[in-house]
Specification:
5% strand, globular, mainly alpha
């Protein structure tokens, strides 16, 4: 069965990012990027799965002008989110 990062787990991720030195606006950017995955229709698909995580991280790396996260921040984010899957 596919593992998902639930809304509750994503709140834990927000706290962890903050403790790692991410600013509130950076964390908000991350949440905006993954918001569609978090609030999908149907309980079965609600959350971030591994494919959605991979696509989101890839998009962030390819579109740095559209958010405020550096490569180092993206790497840290990826590591934290993968730890929740």
């Amino acid at each position: 069965m596919e593992e998902y990062i639930s809304k509750r787990e994503f709140k834990e991720v927000r706290t962890r990012l903050y403790s790692k030195g991410f600013r509130s606006n950076e964390i908000d950017e991350v949440e905006k990027i993954f918001m569609g995955d978090m609030y999908e229709e149907g309980e079965k698909h609600r959350g971030i799965d591994s494919g959605e995580l991979e696509r989101g991280i890839k998009w962030m790396r390819e579109n740095k002008s559209k958010h405020k996260l550096s490569d180092g921040r993206i790497d840290e984010l990826e590591k934290i989110l993968e730890g929740k899957l």
